[in-house]
């Protein structure tokens, strides 16, 4: 009987592939104008700058949308 607990294979995270990074960049650039608009509207309504800037908003949207493209 083999004991796999002591010599378990090491799983490593692969770096993102070039194709994923290209799609990520395209989605990021596409979401940046809308993220800037929503950030500006939120800043006007609140009367101060919000915690999450337009680049951070676009980045988080790209992180959500890009994997959906690859899983389809």
How many independent structural domains? 1
Number of helices: 2
Q: What class would the helix/strand composition place it in? A: mainly alpha
C-alpha Rg (nearest Å):
19 Å
Q: Low-confidence segments, ≥5 residues, pLDDT <50?
A: none
Q: Please describe the biggest sheet, giving its number of strands, its sense, and whether it closes into a barrel.
A: none
Strand content: under 5%
> Termini distance?
41 Å
What is the H/E string?
Answer: HH
User: Residue-averaged pLDDT, rounded?
Assistant: 84
Overall 3D shape: elongated
Describe the overall structure:
There is one protein chain. This protein has 72 residues and is mostly helical. It has one domain (18-71). It has two helices and no strands. Helix 1 crosses helix 2. The protein is elongated and about 65 Å long. The N and C termini lie far apart (41 Å).
Distinctive features:
72 residues; mainly alpha
What would you say about this model in short?
Helices cover 65% and strands 0% of the residues. By secondary structure, it is mainly α.
Topology, pairings included?
Layout: H1 18-46, H2 54-71
Helix pairs in contact: 1-2
